[in-house]
Structure formats: C-alpha cells, structure tokens
Amino acid sequence: MNMTECSSFRNKKAERRNMSVDDLVIPVKYYQREAPSKKKIEFMAENWNWVLYEPIKVSQIKGGGKGRVVDGGNRLRAAWLNGSMKTLPCDVHVFDSVQDEAKAFLGLQQGRTRIKSYENHRASLCAKDSSAILLDKIVKDAGYEVRNGRTGDFVFDAVSTLTKLITSDKDIASKAFDVCAEIAGGGRIYNHVLNGVFEVEYRGQNQLNRTILTDQNIEKLKKEGMINLVREINKVKAIVGTGSSGFGRKIPAKGILNVLNKGRRTGKIRLSFDDEVVL
Q1: How many domains is the chain partitioned into structurally?
Q2: SS3 state of residue 19
Q3: Which of 87, 121, 155 is the last residue of a domain?
C-alpha cells in the first residue's frame, strides 16, 4: 500500500499523552503482528532505557475506548513485563475506523525490517484492500486459511507467491490453488508446486488454447503427491542449475510437465518455453 492512499488521515497531527499501560491494547486480532520470541521481550524489559525510548503510536477510534497500538507493540509488552512503568508517553491519533488504523500500520512498515507476507495480508485485509480480499477468498474456498505456519493443518502462508500469480491471471491462480489444495489434502502447499501448476495451465491456455488441468491430469498429480512433485521439480533444478533465467516458474513447470507426460506414448503435452519445447 502506498502512503498516498492514507490521504484521509496522514496529515492529522498526533497528541502527545502519558497513557496508563492498562489502557493500551495491541490489536493482534485485526492487523498487528504476533508477539516475537519471549526472550526478546524479556531482554527489552530487563534493559529498559528511557534515553532510547520513542513514544508509542496509538490509535483511538472516534467515540473513545482504549488506545490501540499501531506502532510499538513490543515496547508495550516489555513495559507490561517490567511492571515498574504505570504510564507511557504516546502519540495519539484519532481515526475514523479500524480500516484507517490498518492503513497507517502498513504505511509505517515501509522502509523497515521486512514485514512477513502473511502479516502484510492480515493488515491489508483489515484495510479492505481488494487484492487481499480476493486472495483470502481463493484460499478459504479451497478449505485453507492464511496464517503463520507451513506445517499443514490447512494453513497457507506463502502469500507473496499467490499474490504474484493472481496479478498474472486471477482465474488460473484460483484454479491452480484449488488443484494444489487437492494434492496437499490439508498439508503444506509448496511454493514450487503452486508456481509449476499455475505456469503449466497458463502456458497451456495461451499456447495451446486449452486447459491442461483436466480431471484426468489432476488425478495424476494427486496420485503423485506433493512430496514427489517437489522431488521432480528438484531434479529439473539440478539439471538446469539455480542460476537459470526464469527459475521462479519455468523450472517448476517443467517438473510438473514431466509428471503429466510420464508413461504417455502418444498425446504428450508440448509446451514452449521461449525457444525450447519441453516434451
């Protein structure tokens, strides 16, 4: 999100206040990041330094209520743990809605340590960003949800990968994600497999004017399984080399294509990758 999108509130001057730590909350439910490691908060609490302290940025929705921390959640967590600080200096902004809060949070992350893609998604979703809403629908329609943790249990956090695919072709991205969800069966959806399935279908529709992801081919991919598809992609990667141009989608697509063409004597799928034809 570009900060120009925050024009409705970016020039509103903050009011400096000393606020009770009991009147401050961290809106993790909406857009804020989860707490980092316990050790980091403990270190901050034990080594509190007012010389280095910068006021927390706080939002108050019109009408009152507790202050919600837009920036400075770890400082507040450390103050809670330390126990000796009853109040903290805060720069308080009054916003019209949680949506404006989320936009401010996203704007503050620009130029800082990179925010994780699933965290960015949560904030963008709260800010009612249309791309984030579409991505969330695609993931949920397939039975998954966007949150941290790539170990399975219907969790998906490779938001940046899916975002790029949606930008290229939202319909094919949706279909590719559905297929990968079927293959994974609630387990981890690997980036390379998602990229490969998308690229094969994308090239099939644009080069051959037909779908590659037929019921028969989807069943073949499901029978192969997610791990074996990853292995096939890694075989191609080992042959071509990591320095190859277009590694993001081409190599995964070649791996997926190898699986689809396995055992076929006739009717092999032929797709062109620049000047080469993969059989």
Answers
A1: 2
A2: strand
A3: 121
